[in-house]
């Protein structure tokens, strides 16, 4: 159903997509991470390239092969992801934050491996907040016409939580997934509602991540000047 299959409606556009999940190191062998597979972000990158866009894909810890015709930048942590985004964003028409960014990172990094000591309880891990990259990208746009798209996984009152998050982040579109049994991380399929800052609400039925990606690009194309 995607209109994108009809032609290169993103030709001449530069899109920046983040994918995967950040890992926040504790010591040289350990990290705090999340289960994001990166597949939705890669589907966004592939479909944007197929629709004619120049694509910069900033990936965190996916282990996925580079999509053809896409510039790939590899990062590890949230702070590195922010730096890569700030570098890529100035000439982007669209920034899509599909990556799962760790909300917290360990306050300190142990340069040597943390060892257990006989008869001693472990030291607590102190966490500090990571920057909210999406909110920052939406607030400080290098070009006023740049579009910013976020993702959110929600439970309970999914739409109300999504609306509140969209407003808080200040982005143009928010792709809201309901977290549930079938809708697990790492799957090939997804189901979502895309909320627009203009009040729009687009339901995307359970199906391939490419179909959701094409719907996101349809909504983006509608909003590009
Ligand atoms: N995000 C971000 N920087 C962060 C955290 C999240 O850019 N430090 C982005 C994600 O890439 C995603 C969107 O914000 O596009 C929503 O992420 P989510 O974790 O749902 O939002 P949070 O504000 O962290 O809210 P919560 O407390 O529900 O985790
Ligand atoms: Ca979060």
UniProtKB/TrEMBL annotation:
Q: Point out the coiled-coil segments of this chain.
A: none
Which Enzyme Commission number(s) are listed?
Answer: 4.1.1.36, 6.3.2.5
Q: Which pathway, metabolic or otherwise, does it act in? A: Cofactor biosynthesis; coenzyme A biosynthesis; CoA from (R)-pantothenate: step 2/5; Cofactor biosynthesis; coenzyme A biosynthesis; CoA from (R)-pantothenate: step 3/5
- Taxonomic lineage from the root: Bacteria, Bacillati, Actinomycetota, Actinomycetes, Kitasatosporales
Which of UniProt's keywords are assigned here? Decarboxylase, Flavoprotein, FMN, Ligase, Lyase, Magnesium, Metal-binding, Multifunctional enzyme
Which reactions does this protein catalyse? (R)-4'-phosphopantothenate + L-cysteine + CTP = N-[(R)-4-phosphopantothenoyl]-L-cysteine + CMP + diphosphate + H(+); N-[(R)-4-phosphopantothenoyl]-L-cysteine + H(+) = (R)-4'-phosphopantetheine + CO2
How the cofactor is bound: the record states:
Binds 1 FMN per subunit.
What does the function comment of this entry state? Answer: Catalyzes two steps in the biosynthesis of coenzyme A. In the first step cysteine is conjugated to 4'-phosphopantothenate to form 4-phosphopantothenoylcysteine, in the latter compound is decarboxylated to form 4'-phosphopantotheine.
Record-annotated DNA/pantothenate metabolism flavoprotein C-terminal domain positions: 10-221
- Write down the required cofactor(s): FMN; Mg(2+)
* Segments of this protein annotated with the region Phosphopantothenate--cysteine ligase: 15-225
Q: Where does CTP bind?
A: 103, 113, 131-134, 151, 165, 169
| Name listed for the protein in its UniProt record | Coenzyme A biosynthesis bifunctional protein CoaBC
Q: Which residues of the full protein are shown?
A: 176 to 400 of 400
Q: Which family does it belong to?
A: In the C-terminal section; belongs to the PPC synthetase family.
Q: Which GO terms describe its molecular function?
A: phosphopantothenate--cysteine ligase activity; phosphopantothenoylcysteine decarboxylase activity
